[in-house]
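#random but structural
TW: two for the price of one
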Amino acid sequence: MLNKIRRIYWNITWECDDIIEENYELTPVIDCIIYYVSGFNAKKKIKQIDCSTCKTAFIQLANSAPEAELINLKSRKRLIHPNHAICPFSKKLNIILEKLRCL
């Protein structure tokens, strides 16, 4: 999967189908995208909060999980790893949105 992400990252012209496979439940790429977006959302929320304790609740320093590969590849120290509790919430939200899309 890491090779697939690297190939897509370095390829300037890519299609959405190159990333997202037809079977959404089986693809680990979706997990990488959800993790990436969760980190982006956590970073935006941190900018709105003044409390340092509250800020640390949104992030974790590093992650070697497979879904963290996209952030690890693109980071350059500017992207953050979201807290371990944010991603399951985002995954459940994605499942709900997928079900609503199919209605």
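TW: number two ↓
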Amino acid sequence: MRRASFALVAMLAWAWGASALAEPPAPIDVNTASEQQLEQLPGIGHKKAAAIIELRKRKPLTRLTQLMQVRGIGKKTLERLKPFVKIDAVPVADVPATTAPP
């Protein structure tokens, strides 16, 4: 019994130590991330991931605060997301052209 308990404690300590030493994942670009990648973010499920994609289809994001335009993403969620997301420079060719009314 003691041997099993010691083994369990040793395994947990090793797992905790290994995860503490692992590098955090690289932030993902919200303008190019797939729906599946977005769903891996804290607080983002299927609906919010789809809403982020719809938001960026209208116009690529230039600031992380624009994520708060998605229903359910407020200041607290944005703060939780910041370590995991980034916005790279948007190529000019990817920016939708605006047309003047006739």
